[in-house]
Amino acid sequence: MKRRQAAIGFVLVTVLIDIMGLGIILPIIPDLIQELTGGDVSEASVYGGWLLFVYAFMQFLFAPILGGLSDKFGRRPILLISLFGLGIDYIIVAMAPDLYWLFIARVIAGIGGASFTTANAYIADISKPDERAKNFGMIGAAFGLGFIIGPLIGGGLGQFGTRIPFFAAAGLTLLNWLYGYFVVPESLSKENRREFTWKRANPVGTLMQLRKYPIIVGLLSALFMLYLAAHATQSTWTYFTKERYGWCPWEIGLSLAFVGFMVALVQGVLIGPIVAKIGEVKAVYTGLIFNALGLLLIAFAVDGWMLYAIMVPYAFGGLATPALQGIMTSQLPPDEQGELQGGLTSMASVTAIFGPLMMTNIFAFFTAANAPEYFPGAPFLMGAFLAGISTLMVIKPLMKFIRSKSAAKDE
With b meaning 16 or more CB within 10 Å and e meaning fewer, what string describes 83-94? Predict the structure, then answer.
């Protein structure tokens, strides 16, 4: 028991430091792109969308390969490769003389970007079935805590120059790599490993392999729409708050820190008791409804302070994804957990290929000088619509899941 808890602690610290590195750079991204291009916020958001596109496309291609390799060789070596690649990415960005180098850095980061895939598989390896939703929620909490600390550091350092936060992120990420090398143990026992095959180690092959689990296929479709909706926030928040409210990097950092605090509170503290009380199925529905409501409110927020109030209900949208992951992992044997997480990462990467381009171009269209209607909140309105569709899509597979659990009890 103590060993399992210690292992969970190791991987959560790894995720925490990794996300702190990402959080450090977010408040300064719009200013860096504007510095390199000489354009305005609207134009910078389009370049930002393409940078996210490149990262996601490379991750889409390579995440199933790394997920399959982690099922053969273990989680630890893949996690270390991912972290080292991300550290190199930050160094390149910090020294980039032009926009082209930013794209090169994103290619490197995308290839090695399997830390979340491996972290999720690690958690699946060491968690009891009835604890998986809670432990996946703890990863979300580490994510949230990283977003409390990281953006505050990045917003503060950004006042001393656009490159300083990237050097800080590189140092933090490489420190995390050292931590993983010397401290993090392997979680996948040799008897639970499987052979690596190229047929399964590709985005299409991984997802096709999951077809034999109809409940998972249905939930993946709903999760696809939810991931797409999330890019309203993930891809445009820094541009939206700078354009709509005139926020500086420090103010953007403060807002992201508050978002991180709410995510950590919901997914780290509240999700366990909530899921235990209402069950995974009701947690999914509750999260999806709050998700759609929060995005709708953000779209029409006229003052910056309103975002802080809206983040309270919106954060409860974070109940949905861990609960969905808990349900899906319960449908698979131990030697396919890494493949599932690789498939989830591939699917998330598909949405990250199209989501940023869609959301940043919607933002740019409605904030351009010749826009037919000035409406910076347009991406969030689109996100609310997609989250609503996701809510409808989970109904059928969740009904199948409930029936399968009832049948198992009867046996």
Answer: bbbbbbbbbbbb
User: What share of the chain in percent tops pLDDT 90?
Assistant: 22
The pLDDT assigned to 205 comes to: 63
Q: Which of the four pLDDT bands, split at 50, 70 and 90, describes residue 7?
A: low
Lowest mean pLDDT among 2-16, 75-89, 231-245, 307-321: 2-16
Contacting residues for 364 by C-beta, under 8 A, at least 6 apart = 42, 43, 45, 46
Interior angle at CA 175, CA 75 and CA 100, nearest 5: 90
pTM of the model: 0.75
Asked whether 220 and 93 are in contact (CB, 8 A), the reply is no
What is the token pair recorded at 368? 């351009």
Query: What is the 3 state secondary structure string of the chain?
Result: CHHHHHHHHHHHHHHHHHHHHHHHHHHHHHHHHHHHHCCCHHHHHHHHHHHHHHHHHHHHHHHHHHHHHHHHHCHHHHHHHHHHHHHHHHHHHHHCCCHHHHHHHHHHHHHCCCHHHHHHHHHHHHCCHHHHHHHHHHHHHHHHHHHHHHHHHHHHHHHHCCCHHHHHHHHHHHHHHHHHHHCCCCCCCHHHCCCCCCCCCCHHHHHHHHHHCHHHHHHHHHHHHHHHHHHHHHHHHHHHHHHHHCCCHHHHHHHHHHHHHHHHHHHHHHHHHHHHHHHHHHHHHHHHHHHHHHHHHHHCCCCCHHHHHHHHHHHHHHHHHHHHHHHHHCCCCHHHHHHHHHHHHHHHHHHHHHHHHHHHHHHHHHHCCCCCCCCCCHHHHHHHHHHHHHHHHCHHHHHHHHHHHHHHHHC
The CA–CA distances, whole Å, from 128 to 160, 261, 325, 327 equal: 47, 27, 14, 13
- What's residue 228's pLDDT? 92
- pLDDT at residue 216 greater than cutoff 60: yes
C-alpha 140/C-alpha 14 separation (Å) is: 13
